[in-house]
Amino acid sequence: MYLCATLKEDTMGNTTDLALLRKRSMASIISDAYRLYMDNFKKLFRASWPLAIIYAAVFALTTNLFIRDVLTTVTTISDWSMVDWSAFLSHCWMAIGSMLLFVIAALLLASTAFWACRCHKQTGAIERSLHWWGVWPSLWYPKTLGKSIKWFFKPGFRYWGMFFATWLITMFITTAITLFCELPAVIIGIANVKAYTGAAMGDPLGMPDYLPLMTFIAFFVAGFVQAYVHLASIFPFYYAFGMAKTIETERNKMKI
Question: Is the pLDDT of residue 136 over 60?
Fold first, then answer.
């Protein structure tokens, strides 16, 4: 279990208006979440950069294999009723395996946000990582995930509307920023799809030998940026949880 170190007063992370247990409007939940993230970005970067590199590498590998093996095959299928699914899965097994690795990499990266939220909940501030290699998840992480899921279904499910609205707004913001930041990689990806699709239909590959390497590098850089765009998306749910806990506390006091 990774213990939060003793913290000195932090004028950015320990402000009362960013405290967890407060009533907030939906706009405040979103704005305070991103403010907490940006105010502590240096600490989060120091804590997560090795996991972000792993995430970016797996993202680049998965995207390349998905374009090469899955998309090119799917775009050449004219009659889905005639598809030999065993052959299809055999052809795409590397892409499918890399997708599973990507899910693991994403969960590892998310542990940094859970660690930061855990520290902020306990101390009112996000601490600086004690080691240059950042913060890696340990037994506390699956326990925290399990408790979060259990709490959401009881009693948190009565606040499903607030969590759904939080998810919807956060998804919109995250998608917009991701597409903007990854536009060069998206363009290169489209070029790869067209090239591989044409090759699958019998046309010459028609792209330089260095393009696969350039594609991997482009998606690696895009994945690294994406890691920190997506890492921020966890913090709105942290404040939505705080809002729900505050309402629950007041509800229990009224029953006494």
Answer: yes
Q: Rounded to whole angstroms, how far apart are CA atoms 227 and 230?
A: 5
Lookup result for tokens 């590098």: 217
Three-class DSSP category at 54:
helix
23 phi and psi angles, rounded to 5 deg: -75, 135
CA distances from 101 to 197, 202, 227 (A): 25, 32, 15
- Interval 21-54: pLDDT, tens: 888 889 999 999 999 999 999 999 999 999 999 9
Q: DSSP for 156-173, please give it.
A: GGGGHHHHHHHHHHHHHH
DSSP-derived secondary structure for 132-146: TT-----THHHHHHH
pLDDT surpasses 80 at 124: yes
Residue 79 half-sphere exposure toward CB, CA atoms < 13 A: 2
DSSP 101: H
What is the 8-class DSSP label of residue 129?
P
